[in-house]
Amino acid sequence: MKSAFGTLMIAAGMSALLIGGIHLLTKSRVHDNQQTYALEVLKTVVPRDEIALALQKKPSPYYTIDEAGRFIGVLFNISTEHGYNGRIEAWLAVGLDHKVLGVQTTFHQETPGLGDFINAGSLWNRQFLGKQLNQARFDIRLDKGDFDNVTGATVTSRAYTRMIKTGIDHPALMRLTQEQQSD
């Protein structure tokens, strides 16, 4: 019995070493692949052919968006806790003129089948494209805003629309203002 236990312990130890070794050998490659994939996903927020994103870490993380070598806007994360079932997160892309270039939901817990209209690629999200953050009334029409809501999902519609408006306070918009002043 002792020899079976010892054999088992040796096999377990060798397996742990093998798995640990494989992890160490592939860790950087997995990380690089994850970063590449994340950038490709982010590029889908701005529906244009050839854009490049560059991470800016200060004052808070955001991406600059370049098209054909020319700076065209910024991309950053927005969120709200006011969805029907809590937190909603999205990426918001804003152009030099403070117009919405794209918006894409990355996380929500809204009711399946009812709150899904905020998912990435939805037609409902397209109503925000081209709207200026500092001029449009980012609220639903029921609240005298400029945007449609979804019947039966008014709380989600309201929360999402107001979440986009919070983008006007993101530090990345300082970069847009600086770019406009330097032109």
Domain count: 2
| Cα-based radius of gyration, to the nearest Å | 22 Å
User: Spatial order of the strands in the main sheet?
Assistant: 1-2-3-4-5
Report how far the terminal alpha carbons are from each other: 81 Å
Kindly name the structural category: alpha+beta
Question: How many helical elements?
Answer: 3
Run of helices and strands: HEEEEEHH
Q: What ranges have pLDDT less than 50 throughout 5 or more consecutive residues? A: none
Shape: flat
Strand count: 5
The major β-sheet equals: 5 strands, antiparallel
Mean pLDDT, nearest integer? 87
Oligomeric state of this protein: single chain
The amount of helix comes to 25-40%
Strand content: 15-25%
Question: How would the blueprint of this fold be written?
Answer:
Layout: H1 2-43, E1 51-56, E2 62-67, E3 70-83, E4 86-95, E5 100-108, H2 154-165, H3 172-182
Antiparallel strand pairs: 1-2, 2-3, 3-4, 4-5
Based on the model shown, name its key terms.
183 residues; alpha+beta; 2 domains; five-stranded antiparallel β-sheet; 3 helices; flat
Summarize the structure.
This protein is an alpha+beta fold and 183 residues long. It contains three helices and five strands. It has a five-stranded antiparallel β-sheet, sandwiched between helices.
